[in-house]
Request: fold
Amino acid sequence: MPQRKGAFRISACPACGSAGIRAVQEDWSGSYEGKRYVVRNLRHFHCPQCGEKVYDPSAMRQIQAASPAFAKLQRARKTA
Ligand SMILES: [Zn+2]
Reply:
């Protein structure tokens, strides 16, 4: 079986098992130490049944790139 890189698909919600989970692309916001940050047009999966959100590896990278928490870690690593 050929492995397709970047083809991350979900057919059922890992939280409730609903087949209604689907890919969405929308602004995503998180918060760190009371500060909100936004990832524009983040592609991720959303379950309308239970509200679960699932992120593929590239979505995780985008979140990490925008997160002040990860920015702090990267700075710490560079100076160490
Ligand atoms: Zn669900």
Summary: The first helix runs from residue 57 to 66. Strands lie at 22-32, 35-46, 53-54. The helical segments are 57-66, 68-79. DSSP finds two helices and three strands in the chain.
